[in-house]
Design brief:
The chain has one domain. The chain is 65% helix and 3% strand. The chain is built from 13 helices and two strands. It has a two-stranded antiparallel sheet. A hairpin with a 5-residue loop joins strand 1 and strand 2. It starts with a helix and ends with a helix.
């Protein structure tokens, strides 16, 4: 593997390019070889995050709680305008969606600066650089697991339904994990070459929630705009979680609902799931390949 990374005598360009399959295989092999370093860095990130923190592990619950509170206020306003009442499961839906969204934005917020924040390691010591953004993702998984435990215990009282449709939940979580991983690799690499990427990340973290059905359901946008917002790769994951956990709907079946004006609105199409999965799998492969082939330039731009 070392020969594939070897530099020419000038030291600035790589040898003959390997195939995509060889590069991706090398990424997986290197990550497995350096798995202890990966988990050590993740443990360091977790320790630093909670060291001398007044609230301790309660910080893991803060973001989902804020999203649920904000969502309830928005849904209450919508309900009062439309003449509807909030259902008992509204808080549960917001908690599940808020948990998934918090995981995604937390991952990109911490991982995007992982390379620039470890410039001493990147420029002096060899290891697969993918370890840095992925360790941030693992640390965020730890936070999310704490919040998920609390949400899981409350779900039976918040409208959660135990139906066969729950078999879709692990697949949805896997798609979310892969898409978050792809975004983390892409943004951490891009932030190294273009330092204004951090401002793009701030915009995504701040305003992305308004372009994603987190605080509202996609069907509230009506028959014209509901399908458009589902083009957001995260949207089918969130709507899929809502439909499977709170309505017991199988994601292999389409679903139509009536709007407040009695107009049919598409709530779900089976291809939505394939669409998100394609973004996750394709994005992870493309970002891993881009990251791996750009590694030899990292030290130069730090």
């Amino acid at each position: 593997m070392e020969s594939a990374r070897a530099l020419t005598p000038q030291g600035d360009i790589p040898e003959a390019r390997t195939t995509i399959r060889q590069d991706l295989t090398e990424v997986v092999t290197d990550l497995w070889k350096y798995r202890e370093l990966l988990f050590t860095l993740a443990k360091r990130d977790i320790t630093v995050r909670y060291k001398q923190a007044v609230m301790g592990f309660a910080w893991a619950l803060l973001m989902p709680m804020l999203l649920v509170t904000a969502g309830l206020i928005i849904r209450l306003a919508i309900a009062s305008v439309s003449g509807r009442t909030l259902t008992p499961g509204t808080a549960g839906v917001l908690a599940v969606k808020g948990l998934c969204w918090s995981f995604f934005v937390g991952t990109i917020a911490f991982s995007s600066a992982s390379l620039t924040g470890a410039s001493a390691l990147v420029s002096k010591v060899y290891f697969p650089r993918e370890v840095l953004p992925l360790s941030s993702l693992i640390a965020q998984c730890f936070d999310t697991c704490i919040a998920a435990t609390a949400v899981s215990m409350a779900l039976p009282f918040l409208g959660g339904r135990f139906t066969p449709a729950l078999v879709w939940v692990p697949l949805l979580l896997l798609i979310l994990l892969m898409f978050s991983m792809a975004t983390a690799l892409f943004l951490s690499c891009a932030n190294l070459f273009f330092r204004d990427v951090k401002y793009i990340v701030q915009i995504l973290v701040t305003f992305g929630v308004f372009f994603t059905p987190v605080l509202f359901e996609a069907t509230l946008l009506g028959p014209r705009f509901a399908p458009l917002i589902m083009l957001n790769p995260i949207a089918p994951i969130l709507e899929g979680m809502r439909l499977t956990m709170f309505q017991g709907h199988s994601l292999l079946e389409p679903l139509m609902v009536l709007s407040a004006k009695g107009i049919p609105v598409v709530a779900w199409q089976p291809w939505y799931l394939g669409y998100s999965a394609a973004w996750a799998v394709g994005g992870l492969g493309a970002s891993a390949l881009m990251f791996h082939r750009a590694e030899f330039l990292f030290a130069e731009y730090l």
